[in-house]
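Q: Structure tokens for this one, please.
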Amino acid sequence: MKKRILTFFPLSHADRTELAEAFRQAEWLETLPETYRRLEQSHRALAAQNQSLQKQNTELQEQNASLSKRIDLLKTALHQRKTEPDKDLQEQNRLLRTQNEALTKQIAALKDAARRPAETKPPAPAIQDSFMEIRDGVLVKYHGKAERVIVPGSVTEIGMCAFMNCKQLKSVSLPPTLTEIGACAFRLCGLTKIELPDTLRSLYTQAFSRNRELTRVVIPESVDAVHNQVFMGCSSLREVTLPTSLRILGADVFKDCHPQLEFRFTVQPGADARSFYGMLAKSCPQAAVQFRKNFLKG
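A: Here is the predicted structure, written as tokens:
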């Protein structure tokens, strides 16, 4: 049997270097599938992240467009507010100026009368008519105790507190010459009904407050101002008719009235229903809800 003789030839430095590089490449090739798998996972994760970022970018663009529209609307509204003042505020301002001028004239007349000597012009005598004290068209005070009262046609104004605390008073007939009912004029009476004339323009603070048996009121279209707490505490008041001619509706006008108080409205042709609704919303939300339901359905 022949013996094999293995002969080892010494490797040069260059051969050893080449052989080591070949081994390194072989090891690198073995890791390629795992490296590819990891790269593929990273690619999928980056694709999902990119899709999420694109979605967020779309949402941000939509929000930006919405904000731009709102800013444009606010700019337009602000411009209109500056160029076209609110008509309702203008009308209220006009009425307040008129009232202020009237009060200024009354104060000036009183001051002028106070400066004059008493003998130059005696004061106008009070007129007694069925227990009524009437002075210059103003019913100053009622001194009677009747359940039904007829106010004479010479009266144009019911003065402050004229009938206050007349608890026995059930009804009153007002003349077609009446234009104003003063503050607390019929406060704490026993009125069960009241008919307001078509010449009436103003109802002042607490004019009919605490009439606990009053059930129904119709405010005529001639009235443009109903001041604070006019019907406050009328706990039986269940039906009120309001005209759209109103320009002033004070605070707490119907406070502590019947919980099922129902409002009716007389709408004049050409009336600014939305302006009227805005005034109701500020002063009497309960009436505003009923007005919107019946007249602002759109």
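A few notes: The two ends are 117 Å apart (CA to CA). The chain has four helices and 13 strands.
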